[in-house]
Design a protein that fits this description.
Two copies of one chain form a homodimer.
Chain A: E1 3-4, E2 23-36, E3 39-50, E4 57-63, E5 72-78, E6 84-85, E7 91-94, E8 97-100, E9 103-111, E10 118-119, E11 135-144, E12 147-156, E13 159-167, E14 174-180, E15 184-189, E16 198-204, E17 214-219, E18 226-232, E19 243-246, E20 251-253, E21 256-265, E22 269-277, E23 285-288, H1 299-302, E24 310-317, E25 323-330, E26 334-341, H2 342-349
Antiparallel strand pairs in A: 1-26, 2-3, 3-9, 4-5, 6-7, 7-8, 9-10, 11-12, 12-13, 13-14, 15-16, 16-17, 17-18, 19-21, 20-21, 21-22, 22-23, 24-25, 25-26
Chain lengths: 358, 358
């Protein structure tokens, strides 16, 4: 069970000032989440698109990789062209080449109570490499040995890859390059070594032989990954029938690694559900919720930039009794949060009905 | 320049006994190549398909992953079904799921002179893990610190991934798991560390944002890979206009890393060409042949299981003057070899015309 807070949506694009005067913020969503220095920190994915003076043109923002100043440039395409495809609101395809209709970067939002947030005036992690030309998306924050590791989706003409950055203070960030090649996203680190190896879950792309599936990989140093092992795929007729991917970084419990993940089915859209993985061998899935934990129901979850999306990305403890705040992106537009607990999430993973003790 | 030997094709499926009485060998091609113990060793990709008694059925061979005995099983599908797609001879698609029409494994062929080969009676590396369920394909052999490392394509219901194995003697082999996740193939190791790091070139799959491209990755231990960097893509209007991928393991020369790779264009099919990469920073491409080194011209290159394919996979030195045997698969059916040299390959990479000194 997870109870939405009355403040939802807790962050909307209107709370974010654009990174430049010629841009507008169309999304502030899918946040990495952690606790640091007395505050809940969200690393929002902020999506911006250019303000266009000419209504007959669509603008495509991207990092100007030829420039040393790391500025954005705007490509302009004629809306009426027979060579343009604007069917998917997230993309612009012109003369056979596909771009993104907005550029994303990471920006901090801070809160003392976990529900009322203030957004920093400046970006935290802005595109800066050729692999981030089209943006930085959907990060997750995992604390490992006292360091905040930020795994994120790096999008560019070279494809959709996984980048890694780290910080000690959410003021300066160190980039560690691409840890997974194209096509991969939704990579989430476990918070400690398992049998001596750092562990990552990741989600590969689709091809002729299979759809996008969830895998584990292992590393001696967090930078180099190998021993890739498939571990979860969509289940026909369930809430995660069409597509799945990691959600929040897993939490260690006596019952196993507790993992909130996302699943998609044609009827409900993107939902959140729960799985329990074996502590010593997370490749072994102990149980997986038959029903979703959260389905798009509220207005802010149903309507937005992309309809019917609950996209869980972070779990933050709020007391020592196992109470948790589950942060999730809604409708590719805003951020919402629901209160839950380790006990309730384990019950969900096992499909147990919990008696409410008031 | 590369001169085909008169013995071509040097290996054909007819030279290979099937691995079981109910199978037929339809391909012996795309070999890893090296020199060991006084012999040229080829690790052939042998492709087999089941002999079917009923002409109305097509058989799909695969590893029986549920069985402990590592045997093959044959799925049978009705040829006349409205739910079957046999358009691509390499695949069988039934009720929306795609399988391979044959299963591949690795088998040794040996030669004293590099042109006349004997094929071992038994497979060398046969599918044995769930990730090899549909076969082991297109290996490359790189000698690193005295060990023969075999990078190969592992195909299964989980996708097209890169596996790594090693051997000291071509009698026993050790598997090192999947070093790259789905979708990736044509991964080729450099023969030594570069600036302290082992180096790999690999070829990602296609997606909405880009086609299959060549990348480099780096490793401290050959097992875990990171810092992925894009370095080569197809060139419009050249012999490698449509598709590219690594060929033989690179050779260190005073002019740079010499790399024979494959490219595809609609007119000629799969060709071999040459590139020179900077020794200290192979990410920097010094030059790339404007013309192909070898194009499908001979009957055995033009006709076979898949038409018009020259697929270079191994270079073996045959003297101390830089003479080389270039081994390549032809038409997804057989193996051919051409004599060349380091000097000639460098000239090809630079598009220099060489005067023949007779």
């Amino acid at each position: 069970m997870a109870i939405r807070v009355p403040e939802n949506p807790i962050i909307t694009p209107e709370m974010v000032t654009p990174s430049a005067p010629n841009m507008e913020v169309i999304g502030a969503f899918n946040p990495g989440a952690t606790y640091y220095n007395g505050e809940v920190i969200l690393l929002l994915r902020v999506a911006e698109r250019p303000l266009m003076e000419d209504p007959n043109k669509v603008g495509v923002p991207m990092l100007d990789v030829e420039s040393d100043s790391r500025r954005l440039k705007i490509l302009e395409f004629p809306v009426q062209s027979p060579h343009i495809d604007l069917t998917d609101p997230r993309a612009v395809t012109f003369e056979g080449r596909t771009y993104l209709s907005s550029i994303s970067y990471l920006r901090i939002a801070r809160s003392k109570d976990g529900a009322n947030f203030q957004v920093d005036p400046e970006p935290a992690l802005f595109p800066a490499t050729p692999y981030e030309e089209y943006g930085i998306e959907d990060c997750r924050i995992t604390v490992i040995e006292g360091v905040f590791y930020i795994s994120y989706t790096a999008v560019s003409r070279y494809g959709i890859c996984v980048g890694l950055a780290s910080t000690h203070d959410f003021k300066t960030y160190k980039r560690h390059g691409l840890i997974l090649h194209h096509e991969n996203k939704n990579a989430v680190l476990f918070p400690r070594r398992i049998n001596g190896r750092y562990t990552l879950m990741h989600r590969t792309g689709a091809s002729a032989l299979n759809g996008p599936n969830m895998w584990l990989a292992y590393s001696p140093d967090l930078l180099h990954w190998g021993d890739h092992q498939f571990f979860m795929e969509p289940r026909t007729h369930a809430w995660d029938a069409r597509r799945i991917g990691a959600g929040a970084p897993p939490i260690e419990t006596p019952e196993g690694w507790l993992m909130v993940y996302h699943g998609v089915n044609p009827k409900d859209g993107y939902c959140a559900g729960v799985a329990l993985l074996d502590i010593e061998n997370p490749h072994h899935v102990i149980s997986r919720s038959e029903n979703a934990l959260l389905m798009p129901e509220e207005d802010y979850e149903v309507s937005g930039f992309f309809e019917r999306v609950i996209f869980p990305t972070g779990l933050v403890p709020i007391d020592t009794n196992g109470s948790l705040m589950l942060y999730y992106g809604v409708a590719d537009r805003s951020v919402a949060v629901a209160k839950t607990s380790i006990r309730e999430l384990i019950a969900c993973a096992r499909d147990e009905v919990m008696l409410l003790v008031v």
